[in-house]
């Protein structure tokens, strides 16, 4: 994930801190993942249609460390 994208997400989370959830669709190399940011509890839920146990690409999940 590019540094500009990470910074934009950090800014949006701070700006929308009154919201319950923020939905962040993200495409990396043609692979779409939906991150659901639970702002108040500082948790990220990941919806990934291709995820299979043992087949997780850490590059697709860097957003979780941004929050």
From TrEMBL:
GO terms for molecular function: cysteine-type peptidase activity. InterPro entries: Papain-like_cys_pep_sf (IPR038765), Peptidase_C48_C (IPR003653). The keyword Nucleotide-binding does not apply. One of its GO terms (biological process) is proteolysis. The keyword Protease applies. Keywords: Hydrolase, Protease. Residues 17-54 form the Ubiquitin-like protease family profile domain. Belongs to the peptidase C48 family. This is Ulp1 protease family catalytic domain, papain-like cysteine peptidase superfamily.
